[in-house]
Write a structure and sequence with these properties.
Elements lengths: L8 H15 L4 E7 L11 H5 L3 E7 L6 H13 L4 E3 L8 H14 L7 E6 L6 H9 L17 E5 L3 E5 L10 H9 L10 H15 L1 H8 L8 H11 L11 H13 L14
Helix pairs in contact: 7-8, 7-9, 7-10, 9-10
Bound molecules: guanosine-5',3'-tetraphosphate.
Length: about 280
Amino acid sequence: MTENVNWFPKHMKDSEDLLKKNLKAVNIVFEVLDARAPLSSKDMNIDRIIGQKAKIVILNKCDLSSDDGNKQWVSFFNKGDTETALVSAVTGDGLKNITNLARKVITKAGIKSKSIRVMVAGIPNVGKSTLINCMAGKKKARAANKPGVTRAKQWIDAKSQFELLDTPGILRPREDKETVLNLAFIGTINDDVLDVGTLASDLIEKLVGIVPEELCARFKIDINDKTPLEILETIAAKRGCLMKGGMVDYIRVSGIVLSEFRKGRLGKITLEYPAC
Ligand code: G4P
């Protein structure tokens, strides 16, 4: 599946140059990750790019990830000495904690400035602009669910405490199949370049492994002794995704499964956990 993905090499270089250029102007970096898959959604080059600059990790979309997963990931990052905030930029949960943690990290770094200049970094679709909008309390940054779309830098005055610099998201090539799948499940890799039938079937396989009861409850199905494809076909029958002659409309049913997972309709689900 990875061979179909356009990893936007030109955007990658431009984005990295922009990050490096603006780094000097900020006091701290907010590294935004998707709480459902924090490692898969991490730009593995970010720490090299930002060097010694103060940083906090923001685990965004915590309204979609499991409470247990959230707890484990915060503890994982804290153990690595990184202050970490659990946030939902949609509900506003955890926003106050960002302010406290940023102040703490800035003070530790010996910076006394009243207003904090922040670079908000992360791969596309983790919720950077939604977070900025939420912190600014108004619709300023551009939010678009278009993986790979780059944006010009923009400073947003967030109620005078922070000046937030939105940055274009970088999605670098990933080799690891599990990581690519997680990114596709959470919608970071555009569905247009993927085989949605295979993707939905892969997602079902994953869900059977981690939340089988939720899968059965949501679609009112029995999954015993069924392959992921058979489960997808059972869901198709339940949801009226059959064409003439009883043929399964794989594209429609796959869209339903992916969309319901992404919207949290199957419950709060974390796709990966820290290794113990
Ligand atoms: P980006 O700047 O990092 O590229 O991400 P962006 O803010 O554009 O957000 C990408 C999608 O993720 C948006 O959905 C946004 O609403 C959603 N999102 C951001 N933060 C959260 C969060 O904390 N919880 C949940 N549940 N969703 C979040 P979209 O479908 O493109 O737009 P919309 O129709 O939801 O506005």
